[in-house]
Design a protein that fits this description.
The protein is of the alpha+beta class. It has a single domain (about 35-270), classed as paralog of FGE (formylglycine-generating enzyme) (Alpha-Beta Complex), CATH 3.90.1580.10. It is built from five helices and eleven strands; from the N terminus they run αββββααββααβββββ. It has a four-stranded mixed beta sheet with strand order 9-8-7-10. It has a three-stranded antiparallel beta sheet with strand order 1-4-11, with helices on one face. Strands 2-3 form a two-stranded antiparallel sheet. It is globular, with a radius of gyration of 18 Å. The two termini are about 20 Å apart. About 45% of the residues are buried.
Amino acid sequence: MNNLNEATYSVNASSAIDFEIMACVDMVKIPAGRFMMGSSHGGEFERPEHEVILEDYWMDEALVTNKDFEQFVNQTSYVTTSENKGTAWGYRDGQYSDIKNLCWRSFAGQGREDHPVIVVSWHDATAYAEWRGKRLPTEAEWEKAARGGLVCKSYPWGENEPTPDNCGFADKLASEVPATVEVRTHQPNGFGLYGMVGHVWQWCSDWYKEDYYAQSPINDPKGTDTGTLKVRRGGSWNVRQEFRLRCANRGAINPEAAFPNIGFRCAMSCSK
């Protein structure tokens, strides 16, 4: 991802074009148009399969890395949700539990600079995205991007079962050091996006509602106005069920939560 400097905080009219060019480095432009969202073969919360129309938008080519997030923290002195709480959910001594002082820094050491940043809450992801002059993708934007231009296929690569070539899912066991890899390790999808599924879960901007699809508008849906949980998408390195890696699969999580298997990527509207 492009490392923008502090100058991007104050953007006036004369510099807006330069800012957009800088912000779009290492992003992919997803073309405007229709796509079929959801699935008639998944759980009730994926139904009904329905048509959605989106304007074109930009999506990060890869997940936000430890290196990216460290720059943000260094320049802003931002303190993450888990650092403020003093604990985060993780795996130690053969079990998952709240672990004292666990935070994003715990897994951002030497050799993991280009791994996805993890143990970040929805609030942390939103703060980073805003610092970059971007935002989190909507659930609809995420799903369209994940499909990579394929129509009604289960996975970003089609219908074949997941393999280590196209995603990180390999029935991995729980581990004290999460089994993430560099963000551009696996094959990109048809839009040129890396790691859309099977690496880490990814935060979306929407509040989650199980039956939202029954009332979702056809144009640029953004979820409900309020809620208690935020949408997560994409599965992760430690999921055991292949169905969680499907483009249509939906999940939800408390926006305060920070886990070793959830990260994010950013999006940006073409007309800022």
